[in-house]
């Protein structure tokens, strides 16, 4: 039986997870090509900059919600069974402010902050907090158990899992999606290309998706330990600023964020914003600076900026024939690429099975 040759373009969390899922199929031969790989830090490469945690935001009935719901079980399994992947459980507090309704961040977190959130039966230990336990200015609060992923460990772990399954990795830059097929390691053109190019799907020939746009996120990585993962739906410093705090697994430090600056391509950290992020984080979780309550008590590892690959209408996971060849798109995962990664990759797998037309073969 002839193998199905597949080229995956992109080594972000979507490309790597998709390559891993496809490589488990007996009859698939997978090559992954990418401009950037784990270990690189670049403004065109979102995945290393993410926190990353599982904070579901998909609206009920959307494909994003379906992908997020499906992804929890696998993140939970990895967390329990494979500590070397760099994921750990975190006690989580989510606070909402009524005044953030309709703001950029309020809209982003509108499902996350609900006290009757759809994911209350997906994740463990969900409970509504009493009003007396809420920080000043907050009107809703929930507590539950989530996960935090150390992306510096998890992305290379995904590479290792892929390599173990026979995936061949190559550095390459393509200017048109149709060029990807010729990079298959067999020397023959691939029968299916998977497009996981994130924000660059906006400018890639054959795709040129103008619904894709950046939402800038600025973070500060510190050595201080918060003891809890927490977020608030907004701030009084601007309707695109938000506060979130998460401690990465296995010594990865604590991420303090952030903002959701839509349409902003700036790659350099803004020092004033960094100061606001640090002070707001301490105000929300005083355990970060227990002696003084001041930002000088924070031990900074680095400042960073990542561009979330947003897409009007949500992530695009669908098949399309381009130049007579099948392409399965998987991009536009905004600020939710980790928490929707496995659900998206399984959807790609189903689309590939439909394309090759012989479900039993993959
Ligand atoms: P990318 O990681 O950007 O990867 C795209 C890949 O395609 C790269 O390898 C690139 O080199 C390659 N590529 C593109 N064009 C070409 C080309 N022409 N030729 C060859 N290769 C190409 N998500 C969560 O789930 N939870 C979080 O807590 C979270 N926090 C975040 C915090 C910040 C500050 C940011 C910025 C993002 C956060 N996200 C979070 C979102 C998450 O990081 C993204 O959704 C995810 O990384 C997108 O992955 P991707 O694989 O689609 O894109």
UniProtKB/TrEMBL annotation:
UniProt family annotation: Belongs to the DAMOX/DASOX family.
SUPFAM superfamilies hit by this protein: FAD-linked reductases, C-terminal domain, Nucleotide-binding domain
PANTHER family assigned: D-AMINO ACID OXIDASE, D-AMINO ACID OXIDASE (AFU_ORTHOLOGUE AFUA_5G11290)
The UniProt record lists the keyword Flavoprotein: yes
Single GO MF annotation: FAD binding
Keyword check for Flavoprotein: yes
UniProt-annotated binding residues for D-dopa: 244, 335
Residues annotated for FAD binding in this entry: 197
CC per GO annotation: cytoplasm
Name this polypeptide is given: D-amino acid oxidase
Swiss-Prot/TrEMBL cofactor(s): FAD
Alphabetical GO biological process terms: D-amino acid catabolic process
Keyword tags: FAD, Flavoprotein, Oxidoreductase
Segments forming domain FAD dependent oxidoreductase: 5-348
Superkingdom to which the source organism belongs: Eukaryota
Pfam families attached to this UniProt entry: DAO
Cross-referenced InterPro entries: DAO (IPR023209), FAD-dep_OxRdtase (IPR006076)
């Amino acid at each position: 039986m002839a193998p199905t040759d597949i080229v995956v373009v992109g080594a972000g969390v979507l490309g790597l997870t998709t390559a891993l899922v496809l490589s488990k199929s007996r009859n698939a031969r997978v090559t992954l090509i990418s401009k950037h790989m784990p270990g690189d830090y670049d403004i065109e490469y979102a995945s290393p900059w993410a926190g990353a945690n599982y904070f579901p935001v998909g609206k009920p009935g959307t494909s994003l919600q379906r992908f997020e719901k499906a992804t929890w079980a696998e993140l939970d399994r990895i967390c329990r069974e494979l500590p070397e992947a760099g994921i750990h459980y975190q006690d989580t507090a989510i606070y909402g402010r009524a005044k953030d309704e309709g703001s950029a961040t309020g809209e982003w977190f509108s499902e996350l902050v609900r006290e009757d959130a759809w994911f209350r039966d997906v994740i463990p230990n969900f409970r509504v907090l009493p009003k007396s336990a809420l920080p000043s200015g907050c009107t809703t609060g929930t507590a539950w158990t989530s996960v935090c992923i150390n992306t510096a460990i998890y992305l290379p772990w995904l590479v290792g899992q892929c390599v173990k399954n026979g995936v061949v990795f190559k550095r390459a830059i393509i200017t048109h999606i149709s060029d990807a097929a010729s990079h298959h390691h067999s020397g023959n053109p691939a029968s299916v290309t998977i497009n996981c190019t994130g924000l660059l799907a906006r400018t890639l020939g054959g795709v040129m998706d103008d619904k894709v746009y950046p939402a800038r996120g600025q973070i500060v990585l510190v050595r201080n330990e918060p003891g809890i993962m927490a977020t608030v739906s907004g701030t009084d410093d601007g309707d695109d600023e938000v506060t979130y705090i998460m401690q990465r697994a296995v010594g990865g430090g604590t991420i303090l964020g952030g903002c959701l600056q839509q349409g902003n391509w700036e790659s350099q950290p803004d020092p004033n914003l960094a100061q606001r992020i640090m002070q707001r984080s301490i105000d929300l979780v005083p355990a970060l600076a227990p002696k003084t309550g001041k930002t000088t008590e924070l031990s900074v590892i680095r400042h960073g900026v990542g561009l979330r690959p947003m897409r009007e209408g949500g992530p695009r996971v669908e098949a399309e024939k381009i130049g007579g060849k099948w392409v399965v798109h998987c991009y536009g995962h905004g600020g939710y690429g980790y928490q929707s990664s496995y659900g998206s990759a399984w959807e790609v797998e189903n689309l590939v099975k439909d394309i090759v037309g012989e479900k039993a073969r993959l």
